[in-house]
C-alpha cells in the first residue's frame, strides 16, 4: 500500500516538473493597423465616403457662392465685369505667375467633383447591394426615393451643364463670339434673345443645382451629426434659403440678358 502511495507521489512530481520546465506561449496580441492604411480603410467605409461627400460638397458650395457673386457684377456694367474676369487670372501676381492661382483652384475643384461623384456612385451601389428588394411604398420611402432621383439624375444634368458651361463661356468653343472675345461680350451673345433655348437649358440646369444643393446640404448636416431633432427645422430652412439664393443669383444674369435688361 505504501509502495502504491510512493509511486503516485513520484508521478505527480514528474508531472509538476514537466509543467514547470515547459514554457507556456503568451497569447499573441492583434497587430495594430498600419497608420498609412487608415485613410484608405476609412474611405472604404460608408461613413468615410459620406464624410468625403460632405467635405467636397462644402468646397463646391463655397465655389458656387463666389462664382455667383462674380456673375452678378455684370449688372455693374462692361468695365466692372471684364475687370473682375481678368483679375481672376492675375491673383497672386507678381508672387505667382499669370493664371497659376486660377489653375490651382480649377485643379482643386476637379478633384472635389471626381471624389464627390465617385463617393456618391459607390454609396448608391452599396445601398443597392445591401437591400435588393425595395421598401414598401410609404410617404417616407417616397420622399427618400424623390431625393435619390434628384441627387442621381440631377447630378448627371449638372455634369453635362458644367461641360457645356466650360466650352461656352470659359473656352469659347461653342460661344458665338468665340474664345477671343471679352467676357462681357460672350455673356451677352450667349443669352441673346435669338438663343432663348440656351437660356432655358441654363435655367433648368441651375434649378437642378439648387435641388441638388438643398438635399446635399441636409445630407451633409446629418453626416456631421448636426441633424438632430431640435435643429431639424432650422437646418432645413438654412438649406432652402441657400439653395434659393444661389438659384436666383445664377438665373438672374441669363434671364436679364434674354429680356434685354443687360445689353
Main beta sheet: strand number and arrangement?
none
Number of strands: 0
In whole angstroms, how far apart are the ends? 123 Å
- Global morphology: globular
Determine the strand fraction and express it as a percent band: under 5%
What's the CATH H-level superfamily name? Fumarate reductase/succinate dehydrogenase, transmembrane subunit
Oligomer type: single chain
Compact summary:
With about 260 residues, the chain is an all-alpha fold. About 70% of the residues lie in helices and about 0% in strands.
Structure characteristics:
263 residues; 9 helices; single chain; 72% helix; 0% strand; mainly alpha; 3 helical TM bundles of succinate and fumarate reductases
What does this structure look like?
By secondary structure, the chain is mainly alpha-helical. The chain has one domain (46-132, 139-258): Fumarate reductase/succinate dehydrogenase, transmembrane subunit (3 helical TM bundles of succinate and fumarate reductases, Up-down Bundle). It is built from nine helices and no strands. The chain has helices at residues 2-21, 38-44, 46-71, 78-88, 100-130, 139-170, 183-190, 196-223, 232-258. It is globular, with a radius of gyration of 31 Å. The chain starts with a helix and ends in a 5-residue tail after the last helix. The mean pLDDT is 81.
Amino acid at each position: 500500500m505504501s509502495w502504491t502511495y510512493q509511486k503516485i507521489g513520484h508521478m505527480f512530481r514528474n508531472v509538476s516538473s514537466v509543467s514547470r520546465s515547459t514554457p507556456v506561449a503568451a497569447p499573441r496580441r492583434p497587430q495594430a493597423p498600419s497608420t498609412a492604411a487608415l485613410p484608405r480603410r476609412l474611405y472604404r467605409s460608408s461613413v468615410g465616403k459620406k464624410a468625403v461627400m460632405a467635405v467636397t460638397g462644402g468646397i463646391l458650395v463655397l465655389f458656387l457662392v463666389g462664382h455667383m457673386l462674380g456673375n452678378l457684377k455684370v449688372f455693374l456694367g462692361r468695365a466692372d465685369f471684364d475687370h473682375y474676369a481678368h483679375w481672376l487670372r492675375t491673383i497672386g501676381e507678381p508672387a505667382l505667375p499669370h493664371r497659376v492661382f486660377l489653375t490651382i483652384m480649377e485643379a482643386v475643384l476637379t478633384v472635389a467633383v471626381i471624389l464627390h461623384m465617385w463617393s456618391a456612385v459607390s454609396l448608391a451601389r452599396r445601398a443597392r447591394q445591401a437591400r435588393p428588394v425595395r421598401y414598401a411604398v410609404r410617404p417616407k420611402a417616397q420622399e427618400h426615393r424623390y431625393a435619390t432621383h434628384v441627387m442621381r439624375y440631377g447630378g448627371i444634368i449638372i455634369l453635362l451643364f458644367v461641360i457645356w458651361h466650360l466650352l461656352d463661356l470659359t473656352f469659347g468653343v461653342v460661344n458665338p463670339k468665340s474664345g477671343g472675345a471679352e467676357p462681357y461680350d460672350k455673356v451677352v451673345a450667349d443669352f441673346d434673345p435669338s438663343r432663348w433655348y440656351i437660356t432655358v437649358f441654363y435655367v433648368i440646369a441651375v434649378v437642378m443645382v439648387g435641388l441638388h444643393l438643398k438635399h446635399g446640404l441636409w445630407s451633409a448636416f446629418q453626416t456631421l451629426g448636426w441633424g438632430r431633432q431640435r435643429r431639424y427645422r432650422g437646418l432645413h430652412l438654412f438649406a432652402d434659403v441657400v439653395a434659393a439664393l444661389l438659384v436666383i443669383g445664377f438665373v438672374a444674369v441669363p434671364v436679364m440678358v434674354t429680356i434685354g435688361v443687360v445689353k
